[in-house]
UniProtKB/TrEMBL annotation:
This is Photosystem II reaction center Psb28 protein. GO terms for cellular component: photosystem II oxygen evolving complex. InterPro entries: Psb28_c1_sf (IPR038676), PSII_Psb28_class-1 (IPR005610). Pfam families: Psb28. It comes from Vasconcelosia minhoensis LEGE 07310. The gene is psb28.
Amino acid sequence: MFEQLKSIERFNSFRNRFSKVLRLSDSEGEIAMEPSGIKFIFGGPEGDDLARVDCTIELDREDHWERFMRFMHRYAEANGMAYGEPPAET
């Protein structure tokens, strides 16, 4: 779940023509993947402000998983975040 993205404002203009490819760029280069599910969550007083984007990604290959995790750890560190599992539902 991404609540803040540098390009979140751009998603607002592309929500009706989303290319179905998520591009992640870091020091290793670019990762291009197609999410298996994506939700655009809107809020605000008029209900038309993009609040966040939820992406579901399925990675079957170990090398793709490792590359994605390296990206996520760098992203988290650069943005004052931490990677972790969501709390278990009770």
